[in-house]
Design goal:
Rna Polymerase Sigma Factor, Chain: A, 190 residues, 2 domains, 69% helix, Arc Repressor Mutant, subunit A
Length: 190
C-alpha cells in the first residue's frame, strides 16, 4: 500500500532506490533524485498542513537532508513512504517547538491574473485553516494531516504514528470536529 505516485513496471521501487541512494556509487545521486521527485510533493503537503505553507519549504529541506543522511538506516521493515512520513512529522514537531505556534503570515500563492480577489480569498482561507490546524492537539493535527493532506489510509497512519487503527479513527474524528468548531467560530463555513 505505497502512496508513491504510480510508476511503471520499468521504474525501480522505493526500496530499491533507497538501497542505491544509501551507498556511495555511480547511481547514488540519481536514485536519491528519483526518490525526491516521487515523494517531495507529498512531503510538502504534509509539512504545509502541519506548520503552515510559509514554513513548509524549510521543513521539506530539513526532511530531504535527513532522508539523505539516514538512508543507510532504512531497513525496509516498513514501507519507504511510512519511514519518510515519520521523518516529516519529526521535522514538523521540531519546527513547531522552535516557534511555539503556527505562523499566520504564510506567503500566499501567486494570484491568478484573471481573479486577484479570488486568490486573496483563497490565501485568507489558507491562513485561517493553518491557524485552526495549529490549535489542534499534536496527535489530532498529525492524524488529520496524514489523512487529508497525505492521503494515507487508517492502517498506514497507525503505522506512522505507532498507534492502533481505532486510535487513529478517534483522533481524526475529534480533530475534524474541532476544526469545524474552530472554523465556524471565525466565520468559515466548513
Amino acid at each position: 500500500m505505497t502512496h508513491a505516485p504510480p510508476h511503471s513496471s520499468h521504474e525501480p521501487s522505493d526500496a530499491h532506490l533507497a538501497r542505491l541512494a544509501a551507498h556511495p556509487g555511480p547511481q547514488r545521486e540519481a536514485a536519491f533524485e528519483a526518490l525526491v521527485r516521487r515523494h517531495a510533493p507529498r512531503v510538502h503537503r504534509l509539512a504545509s498542513g502541519m506548520v503552515g505553507p510559509g514554513a513548509a519549504d524549510d521543513v521539506v529541506q530539513e526532511v530531504l537532508i535527513s532522508m539523505y543522511r539516514n538512508l543507510g538506516g532504512f531497513r525496509g521493515e516498513a514501507q519507504f513512504s511510512t519511514w519518510l512520513h515519520r521523518i516529516t512529522l519529526n521535522a514538523c514537531h521540531r519546527a513547531l517547538a522552535a516557534r511555539q505556534a503556527v505562523a499566520l503570515e504564510d506567503t500566499p500563492e501567486p494570484a491568478a491574473p484573471h481573479s486577484p480577489v479570488r486568490a486573496g480569498e483563497q490565501a485568507d482561507l489558507r491562513d485561517r485553516l493553518a491557524w485552526a490546524m495549529g490549535q489542534l492537539p499534536p496527535d489530532q493535527r498529525e492524524a488529520v494531516s496524514l489523512r487529508e493532506l497525505s492521503g494515507l489510509d487508517y492502517a498506514e497512519i497507525a503505522e506512522v504514528m505507532g498507534v492502533e487503527v481505532g486510535t487513529v479513527k478517534s483522533r481524526i474524528h475529534r480533530g475534524r470536529a474541532a476544526l469545524r468548531g474552530l472554523l465556524a467560530g471565525i466565520g468559515v463555513t466548513p
